[in-house]
Amino acid sequence: MKQTILKLDNINKSFGKNQVLHDISLDVSEGEFITFLGPSGCGKTTMLRIIAGLLEPDSGRVFLGGEDVTSLPPNKRNVNTIFQNYALFPHMNVETNIGYGLRIKGVKKTEIKKRVKNMLSLVQLEGFEKKMPNELSGGQRQRVAIARAAINNPRVLLLDEPLGALDLQLRRYMQTELKSLQTTLGITFIYITHDQEEAMNMSDRIVVMRDGRFEQIDTPSRLYDYPKTSFTASFVGMANLINAEILSTNGDTVNARTSAGVISVLINGPLPDPDQSAVLCIRSENVLLSKEPASGALAADVTDSAYANGLMTTHLRLSDGTVIAASKYGLCTDFHAGDSVFVSFASAVIVDRRDNNEKTQ
Amino acid sequence: MKKRSRAWICVLPLYIFTIFFVAVPLVYVIVLSLLSRDVTWGVTGKFTLSNYARIFESSYLNVFKQSLTVAFLTTLITSLIGYPFGYFMARLPKKRRSIVMTFVIVPFWTNALVRIYGWIILLRSQGLLNSVLQIIGIVSEPLKILYTLPAVIIGMVYSLLPFMIFAVYSSAEKMDFSLVDAARDLGAGRIKAFWTITFRCTLPGLLSGFVLVFVPSIGLFFISDLLGGGKIMLVGNLIQNQLLTSRDWPFGAALSVVMMIMTLFVIWIYRRITRVKDLEGLL
Predict the structure, then answer these.
(1) Nearest-neighbour CA in chain A from B15: distance (Å)
(2) pLDDT tens for each residue of B173-227
(3) List of domains in chain B
(4) Which end of chain A is flanked by fewer CB atoms within 10 Å, N or C?
(5) Could you tell me the pTM of the whole model?
(6) Which residues of chain B make contact with A105, given a CB cutoff of 8 A?
(7) Which residue of A has its CA nearest to B274?
(8) Complex ipTM over 0.90
(9) Which residues of chain A lie closer than 8 angstroms to B197, CB-CB?
């Protein structure tokens, strides 16, 4: 078991009447890549600023390496941040920007020069020492910001949506870069994003946040396969959320009544009690289409279909008007808009209903 | 070709304006400064450098010395007041900021001369300042402030402070304050973060404030006339005297040229330091 490097204990924070964080508690272990994922305004940046020391919580404690740092100012914490806009000092060149933290600490000039050089080669910016920030591209600025933070050997590196301003191509590339950099440095990364793809690609664990609360903390694959709430289910990947009443269970399979008819589906994870209403989360790849009727299948009309990234996504309207999505790898031309089809479900997960802020596919 | 000629016509008024109101007077003053004085006609066509040589007489050098002292002190005091003022004004929430700004600008709507007369009323022996000081009991005899150097400096600071405030404000307003967070995050304490980041980022504003205050404070003559009571002679007063009272046009012109060179020198230094062509905060 790895050591806990950062511990958040019942953090609460309000701005005026608006409570932004509610009883946040979390343990982060050494060398972990942990991502806070949530829509804008969910409190993730506030939490990052509390960890950095730029904000003080109303109540609760922050522990860093076992030491209570709650009331320490940011300059006394061995934590560094990569800001959303990079916040490079415009009047300093790349070299002096990166060496800033070491200069403040009074490290010798020759030593600074050596470490800046090492850092520049690590982020592949050799020869850029004398460039000013406004002469750099977005991706290069990003690397300078990383180098400037990482050169101080922080115990935890905080990243506030660092890829937000980059275009898609570069973002994908930087994701792999960041992940490999994290492995090289062995520093704990706390990463903030609203982009689920970014979170899924890089993280060891993902913390899904909603309205200042933790919705679920899990590995990316478990988060996708076993979402606990409808919010998580729809925020991470495509999910069809169907209200149903459980009629009977038979092993892992349940029979359930939906407003579009009775279905029979295999449940992953904990089974629901019979005679209860539940929300079924069915990933679009678990929605099966057929032209032939079958028991436990629902009649539906194809509304449209789209083919992107090797994935064929078909949208269907059930008899009660619910729209659901089905997806399948490979180009499939069997179903066209207007076709009548029969829909069955391979597997589902029972999730808790979370109503506000919800987007359903 | 057609397009080009039309564009030329558009900027023509600008050239005409510049030639008649900047270039011609400038050349006129420079030429005048190289001619000799004549009792009947004002000037004669005889070339001479004696007007410039006269400036080095100790009485005139003293005027320059006093002018520079006033300008330095005015610049120093306006930056000590104006820097924090402009900086905090930029950090105010939008609504309160515009209220404060209005208070800085409103005096401009009144004639400068009238406002300086106001200071006479405040500063004179039986004026408001002395009455208050006497009532509180800080002084027993009224302070002699009016018609002294401090009065002139008070007037200069009062008149030129808004330029400093707006120069600092305009660069503080543009500053990204997440830079301060970043500096703090990288280990700088509050004071260190201020000097290495905030001060450096607002320095162009402060320097342009120096120029905007220093340059006019050499030339503003009516303030020293009114608040200095004619006892404080600045370069501006000297020029005014030579041109209007002594009617020594060539010497007045030579003084003007020297003052202009001093001004250009200050701007040259500013450009060397900041590598910026425009002055910050020139509204």
Answers:
(1) 35
(2) 999 999 999 999 999 999 999 999 999 999 989 999 999 999 899 888 889 988 9
(3) 54-274 (1.10.3720.10)
(4) N
(5) 0.81
(6) 187
(7) A91
(8) no
(9) 89
